[in-house]
Amino acid sequence: MADSNGAKEHLNEEYIVRTKDLTKHFQMGDEVVQALKGVSVDVFRGEYISLMGPSGSGKSTLFNMIGGLDKPTEGTVFIDEVDMAQLDAYELAWLRCRKIGYIFQTFNLIPVMTALENVTLPMVFAGMTSDEQMERGRLLMDTVGLGHRLNNKPGELSGGQQQRVAIARSLANSPSIILADEPTGNLDLKTGKEIIELLRRLNQESGVTVISATHDLKMVDVSDRIIWIRDGLIDRVQTRSELGDQITEMEH
Amino acid sequence: MADESKHDEQAAAQTEQAKEALLIGLTAEQRAALLQGDRVDALSEAEIRARLAGNDSGDTLEHEDLVAGMAHELTAQSQVIDLLSEQREPEGLNIAKVLDSATIDLRALMSMRISDRTVDCIGPLADEARRSRIRDEISLPTSKAIEMSVKSVRVRLGRVVITASSIFLGIAFFASVRTTALCLRAAGEATEAGEGARLTWLIIMALLVSVVGICNAMLMAVTERFREIGTMKCLGALDHFIVKLFLIESGVLGLLAGVTGSLSGVVVMYLVNSLRYTFHLTDVIAGFGGILVQGILLGSILSVLAAILPASQAAKMPAAAALRSTV
To answer: What 3-state class would DSSP assign to B245?
Structure first.
């Protein structure tokens, strides 16, 4: 996996996320559904990874495991070489608050709060003073190009703008990882492209690791590696250069 | 006798520690200059102090401050070391026990400069220290929680009015029954025997119904906001933050309903009764105060109680499940 076959060079070759033989079973009535059947993934610090696969392939389940939102039936997830299963509720919250930024398909902004308040909410949990919150909140809103819409409620913003606010919020406590679950799923083609470019820019400028579950082929262009998931297993892992020609084929 | 010798030993050890504490901030050169070839245990504490005071070659050594800080560090360190070595021998290391018996602030210790000697011992403690630091690094200040809850109530006013109306009606009923009783007594009207007990039962029933009502309304409000709860958890909220937010929200609601309910109960029943009987406002006004206070307290407390179950149920939900829910 570490071969840098035209992909980004991993200067320090440091893993930020590792999963080992992850399995997840869901009980659906009498039937047991195997959403994951043993997935091992290694992600380097600073990488841009896309988890690709059709609906029901298990990519969202994998995404939830990596983000600590759900517990695996078997197997382990390491974030920064720390086994997630060993963490208590406080440490898990700490991890979600400071290490990981989440972006969702449905944006998931708190509807009663203004854009700025949404962005500063994780900073509240992290115990920042309100001055620091305001300053950093404005800075982040500028970064995503929404410096002029600080006091609008999510309902007053377009889908693309809401997703930008969500991206700003995910960066609130300078996380090392951004987890994006279908970030472009509810957006039109052009807005989706802008969001992908924004994510890529943040990845390159601040070195934040981006892991995105998606079936948006536009993501392929910017990803360092694409992990294809099928039926709860890793189908194949490709670097961008390997994909090169295939993309154009697929898009037509 | 044995006790005495132990005391002496302890005292001697303390003097040694104090002497070390005086010296610990010095560089090797300063130390050599100060001791002038003497051994530390050959000098008395007073002598060391005197030398330190006369030590102008030691640059700008503000030794009083330094000494105070270092003394603390040294005591803390030796306490930990003592405890660790005591613990280690018989049944391995029991960190919880060490932490309990050590009268030191572990976090303060971790942030201090730690000598090499301590590092080995402190390793296992680092985990505990990290955990306790993490506990402090995730918080939702109550003032902020109140601000958020009040905002949430204000924004959802229409729905809140409906939720609050059940508690409003209950409290209004409570206040009107009490007011009528008060007015009748002031007017000198006799009441039937057993009337009071029957009314008390009625009041209890009315309040029970309103608690069930608000519990139901809170259940709806919480279910409606599952996704919001899941999102907050992703942003680092702990379960009890969520409970806190909902309880404060419900408390605010109960307070509003309590104030308006008891006010309207008292005012309406005062007007009605003053038409039918003759009595002076001055005779009942003091009693009204009591009824208002009781109504407001009842309203807020019952409302918070009714929210405990729905809020804690929702907070317990795993983040992924809360996010998946589509209501």
So the answer is: helix
**Cβ–Cβ below 8 Å for A102 and B235:** yes
Tokens 């703008």 — which residue? A161
pLDDT tens digits, B115-158 = 333 433 444 455 666 677 777 788 888 888 999 898 888 888 88
CA distances from A87 to A94, A95, A252, B153, B240 (A): 10, 9, 46, 35, 17
- Reported as a single tens digit per residue, the pLDDT across A1-24 is 444 444 445 555 788 999 999 999
pLDDT tens digit string along A87-113?
Answer: 888 888 999 999 999 999 999 999 989
Three-state DSSP at A177 gives strand
Q: Is A21 in contact with A38 (CB distance < 8 Å)?
A: yes
Q: In Å, how far is B239's CA from the nearest CA of chain A?
A: 9
Strands laid side by side in the A82-83 sheet: A31-44, A15-28, A74-79, A82-83
Quick check: A90 and B138 in contact, CB under 8 A? yes
- Paired with A36 in beta bridges are A24
B270 touching A (Cβ < 8 Å): no
Cβ burial, residue B209 (10 Å; 0-12/13-18/19+):
middle
How far does CA B216 lie from the centroid of its chain? 28
Please give the Cα distance from A220 to A241 (Å, whole number).
10
* Extents of the domains making up chain B: 2-137, 142-324
Interface pTM (ipTM) of the complex?
A: 0.86
Q: How far apart are CA A94 and CA A87, in angstroms?
A: 10
Segments of chain B scoring below 50 in pLDDT = 1, 56-63, 87-124
Q: How far is A240 from chain B (nearest CA, A)?
A: 30
Among the listed residues B173, B169, B182, the one whose alpha carbon sits nearest the alpha carbon of residue B202: B173
Residue B196 confidence (pLDDT): 81
Q: Which residues are CB-contacts of A18 (< 8 A; sequence separation ≥ 6)?
A: A40, A41, A42, A43, A77, A78, A81
A229 vs B191, which has greater pLDDT? A229
What pLDDT is attached to residue B59?
Answer: 43
Q: d(Cα B207, Cα B209) in Å, to the nearest integer?
A: 5
Cα B266 to the center of its chain, rounded Å: 36
Phi and psi angles of residue A209, each rounded to the nearest 5 degrees, phi first = -75, 130
Residue whose structure tokens are 């819409």: A149
Domains of chain A are: 46-56+88-251 (3.40.50.300)
**Chain B hits for A173, Cβ within 8 Å:** 236
Instruction: Show the CA angle centred on residue A143, arms to residues A140 and A147, nearest 5°.
Output: 75
